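Hi F.,

I've been meaning to write this up properly since the lab meeting, where we talked about keeping a consistent format for the predictions we share between groups. The idea is simple: the sequence comes first, exactly as it goes in, then the structure tokens exactly as they come out, then a line or two of notes. No screenshots and no reformatting. I'm using this chain as the first example so we have something concrete to point to.
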Amino acid sequence: MKHVKVLGSGCANCKATAKLIEEVARAAGTEIEVEKVEDVADIMRYGVMSTPGVVIDDKVVHAGGVPDRRVVEQWFS
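Output, unedited:
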């Protein structure tokens, strides 16, 4: 199981990113646990200056804007 964190204030882009990740992972048959991290101090610990950010298994894989679906598919292939 992959542990995915979506870093952001809870804005529309953050929600869209979390939804996209859940959809793609489900389609790929990958078990994930999605955690939304909204605390600014926690977000800053990852060095993410632009949200939404995405962390998979403690590695930052994306920051700034909703990621492209093809990029998300690569995360779970």
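Notes:
The chain has three helices and four strands.
The radius of gyration is 11 Å.

If this format works for you, I'll send the rest the same way.

G.
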